[in-house]
Structure formats: C-alpha cells, structure tokens
Amino acid sequence: MQAAVYEGPFTITVKERPKPIIKDDGDAILKVQLAGLCGSDLHAYRGHQKTTTGHIMGHEFLGVIETVGPAVHKFKVGQKVMSIFSPMCMKCWFCKHGYTNRCQNGPSFGSMALDGGQAEYVRIPFADSTLETIPDNVDDDLMMLMCDIFPTGYYGTMKALTKLMQNTETAENILNFKPLQSAPQLSYTRQQLKDVTIVCLGCGPVGICGVLTAIALGAGTVYAVDSVPDRLEQARNMGAIPLTLGDDDILSIIKTATDGRGADAVVENVGNRAAMRLAFDLVRPCGVISSIGFHQSDLPFDAFEAYSKNIDLNMGRAAVRPVFGEALRILIEHQDKLSSFISHKMPLTEAAKAYDMFEKHQARKVLFTL
Amino acid sequence: MQAAVYEGPFTITVKERPKPIIKDDGDAILKVQLAGLCGSDLHAYRGHQKTTTGHIMGHEFLGVIETVGPAVHKFKVGQKVMSIFSPMCMKCWFCKHGYTNRCQNGPSFGSMALDGGQAEYVRIPFADSTLETIPDNVDDDLMMLMCDIFPTGYYGTMKALTKLMQNTETAENILNFKPLQSAPQLSYTRQQLKDVTIVCLGCGPVGICGVLTAIALGAGTVYAVDSVPDRLEQARNMGAIPLTLGDDDILSIIKTATDGRGADAVVENVGNRAAMRLAFDLVRPCGVISSIGFHQSDLPFDAFEAYSKNIDLNMGRAAVRPVFGEALRILIEHQDKLSSFISHKMPLTEAAKAYDMFEKHQARKVLFTL
C-alpha cells in the first residue's frame, strides 16, 4: 500500500509499505478514505520532537472497516468510522477513571510505536474504544475535526470555564451564614457564564475550535489572540473580539475592559514560554489558566507570583473520550461557522508538498484523499 | 491599653498604646478576651517578611463589642464575637464574587496597615462582614481556631478534593456516547471520595486542620507528612496514616500504595520549594496539588513536567468567608479530635516568651488571655 513515511526533519516520502494486519484480538484494520495533517505532525516534521524514522505519519483519519479482530464487538466489517487520535484501552486505571489522555496501554498513532493513518490502511488497537461512528447529519470533512483538534480545543476551553465556575460563589451564598449539609457542589449556570471574560491565546486549528467552544458554551466576552490575520478573521466571524499579537497592547486592552482586574480565564493553546507568561499576566487574581499547548521549557512565573495571584492552573493534553459527545454536539450545532475550515484537499501522493505548505502557514487545514 | 508591639525581628514588646477609636462608619471596637499566636505571625517575627515596626501584632481574636459605627447593622454593643483574620468589604468585585481572599479594600490585621488584636482593644473595619457570632455549642478556645487556621486548613483540603472530583468521570459515563444537553456538571459523591488517596504535607496548625478536613469529608486514605513526632501523633489520632519526613521513604510508600500511580491529591501546607517538589512527585498524572503554604521562591517543576503529568494546581491564601459555615460545621462535629490542640494559655504580658517558645516549636498553639 501507499503511505506517507517520516524519513527525517522536513522529509516525508510517499512510498510502498506492507498492508497492516490484525495483531491483537481488539484490533481493526481500516481502509482510509480521508486523513488529516495536524499541527502536532509538525513537531516531528520540524525536528523539534526527537524520534526515529521510518514510521507512517498521521493521527487523524476516517474510513471503512476492512477486518476486525475477534474481540471487537461494537463495530463490523464494512462500517464507516472515524478514529480518535490516540488509542485507549478503557481497562487501565486511568481509562476507567476518565483520564484517557493518560492511558497506560495506548501508543500514539503516527509515532515510532504505532504507524499512523496517512496511508491506504491503518491498524486500530482497542478498536471498540478508539473508533467512533459518524452521525448521518455530519459531513465527512467536518467529522475529521473530531479526530483531534475539535475535542482538544473544546477540552482546553471547557476546562477553563468549568474550573472558573467551580471557583465562583455568589455573594448571596457567602453572606448568609448557612452550614452546608453536604459537600460543596459546583454551581454552573448560563447566567454566570454571560459575565465571563475569557482570552484564547493562539488561533491555530486547535485554538480556533476553543474559541468556538467559548462562544457556544455562552461565555459573555471572548477575546482571540494571534498574529495571523486570516485566523483572527475566522475568530471574529465566530463572535470573538480579535487582538493582534505584536500590534495591539493586549494587556492594557484586557485590563481596561475588566476594570483593571484581568480576564477571568485564559486558554493557552500555543505551548511556549511567552504565551504562558502572557496568560499569567492577563488572568485576574483567583482566575484560571487552562493550558493545552505542548510545553518544553520552564514555567515563566514563580511560586510567589502564583501564590499572590491565587492562580488556578490546569495543564496537559486533552482527554478526548470523556468529552467526545459534548464536543460533537457543539460541532454539529455550529458547523456553519466551520464551513471554510478545511482549506485544502489533496491526494496522499502530494503529502510532501502538503507538509511544506502547512509548515509555512500557507494552508489552514489539509485533508488527504485516498 | 496594653498591646504586643512588633519592634523588629525576634523583638515583641508588651507596652502601652492608645485605645483604638471608630474611624469609619462600618468599624467596631472589640474588647479582646482571647488572642491567638499564629504561624504566620512568625513570618515577620523571624524577619523573613519585610515590614516596618511599631504595629500591634495578631490576627486571631475574640471578645465583646464595645462600640459600633453607625453603618454596623448585624452586631450590637455587648455582643460576643470572633473575627476572621483579614477584614473584607464585601463590596468590591472580588468580595462580591466570593474571592474574599483578594478583597481590594481590606488591610491585614497585625500589619503596618492595620493594628492587630494582641491587645486589650482592636478596631475592626467592615465589622458586619469581618465578625462572626459564636455558636452556643462551641467553646471559646475552639472557636479561636475559626479565626484563621481551621478555615485555612479546610480550604486547602476542600480545594484539593473538590477539584479532584471535578476531574473525575466514571468509565460508565464515558463509554456511553451521550451528547449532553447542558454544560458539564460536577459529580461529587461520598462514594467516590472513599477511593481517594490524599497526602497532606505539613502538619503544623493549618496542616493538621487540613488533615481533619480530609477525614471529615470522607477521603478514603489520608497520609500526613511531617518531621515533628507530636504533630504526627495528632494526625494519627484523627485517622490519618503518619509518615515521617527524613525517615520514611515517602515517595516509595505512596507509589506502592497506589499501584505505582501516586496520590490523587496533595495538599501543600508548608510553603517552601522542597515541599512543592515533593507534592509534584507524589501526585499521580491528572491529579491535584492544592498549595496553601506561603511561597517566596520559584516553582520547582517545569512546564514540560507539568504538561506531561496533566497537573492541576491551585495556589494562594484561603477565602475564609465562603467556606466559614462548612468549616465550622466540621469543627463542631469533630471537636473531640481537637481537644488537645491548644497547648498553652498565657497572659498577654508574657507575649515575648510565647513568641520565643512558639518559634522554637515548644508550643503547639498559644492563646493569650486578657
């Protein structure tokens, strides 16, 4: 079969590879119809992430099931399905407790541990929990966003808003001395969300899905920060207030808009030191920073600063499985705002060109057709 | 009147000072009956916290109201009351939203901005929101814990457990694809808490109140870490598993007890670099660190580590007002476990001696009688 193989930094070659076969009872083999090129593919492509060479790239794909192992019960041969970006066993302690982002048995697609889906066929471990059906009312191209970027963007923003609501108590509850009869409960209301100011740092594919999530969940004021005009235009069309990194005095704008306090929550989608520091400076005391960006450096604030600001910080990659349903609901409801999301569809044979374009920000989102 | 005055590091002098008078309409003047010596008084006493000299120390006290300003409506002259450690206006944005720990108008008792209560009389700004009545079924000595250490210890542990429950989703909810009709809700059940392993780092006055909170809220397994045998004995009597810093291999014990995962939550009550690093090492992926200790250094973990562990971190001082009722309920219900908490009662005239003993860990908790 044909596959896009990683042969070193800036070198993707489409070449012949053996068709995958069932290895474990829970495996399925998928005949790929669409495969996505994702921002995180660029970590290896650019050489930032050290890895061996020779594996097939890609962790976003959908297609038709060609074979299933004997332990696959939810899916049948011939069924059209999509895959979540990382297989999960749903049997380890972490999966059982909803932390599928820390599954102890699931290797990552498109890595040295597991070939990816930028190929004619791909092997899916733990098929029953890694695959998802495709609802009738969703277009295939749109459904491709559900493999990674939409639930990841959803997760970062949802975490910020959920944590924020958890930190909020109304003055009414507080002033009435009223010993509680049970443990504290989260009060999370649409009304409270209307008063929220949230800043989304970074409007790449994941960040823009986070912007849409903030709008869809009902956050009152959503700022979107990036340096790329096209991305900011997308954010504006979704209902966010765009701020241009490098041009706008972002800190001063947010402070002025919040009577000097700062934003209630900041979602950090970028994954570098400068973005994290900006997040810290923008958030108000007792506010929330939700960081979904992949970080490789130190934390750009110290313990005294974090103590003095009563900071609430959540970091790390998304648990897709627990949020899949809610994220999909929002995707379907707001699909009109994502109609121009996929900028390029190209045959897999043009993978090398596609990586080059995507790396140079010349494509918003690329899908490979097979 | 007589008052314990800060005259520089390691120098507390009891001397004559003018009796305070009403300055603002919301003030009350309290005739002090009991005043506490708190661990945070030691920050200035030891010279770690830079401050001017000449102010009256102390932020824990109860007594009888002698005068009230015209805007005080909830309390009357002659009423017996206690004070929360820091006045709060309940009118600024932060107070109105429950973040009384970041009140924009309330100076701290026992600081250069506001004389404290280790004196015969003390002025209470924002008396209606800063004072609390004393329930009939609570002893005065015990109620002194409600000025600061008990709600602070409660807050640190409650934050850890509440955040933990917020992060938890059952596998059942996850595996059933079910688009939600509303925003995510916190599921917080006694049953889930039974499975929780929580580590309380530091069993000084605040830490031990946090240990009791963890037991009272129903956390299944509570570890208490300190180096002082007397503190660990207290923790053991409350139902915690004591671990001796320096003797026990704490990391190995916690890892073994959790099948290699680490603790679900760690409460950091100490406020130094080593304790924060231990907290990070002890917590499992997707776990919670709640840090109530006062930090002055950098954070002893980097962004890559925090990303890779999906860390959930909450820092900063307690918001007492929102948790006062629930904390008091627990204090009353579990008061038998705190019967030996107050180790020394001394007249205020012996303040210099008391500070010296307390600083040397020769007293668990000191109250001054007036």
Automatic annotation (TrEMBL), chains A, B:
The keyword Transferase does not apply. Its cofactor is Zn(2+). Keywords: Metal-binding, Zinc. InterPro entries: ADH-like_C, ADH-like_N, GroES-like_sf, NAD(P)-bd_dom_sf. One of its GO terms (molecular function) is metal ion binding. Signal peptide: none annotated. CDD domains: FDH_like_2. The keyword Zinc applies. This is Enoyl reductase (ER) domain-containing protein. The lineage of its organism: Eukaryota, Fungi, Dikarya, Ascomycota, Pezizomycotina.
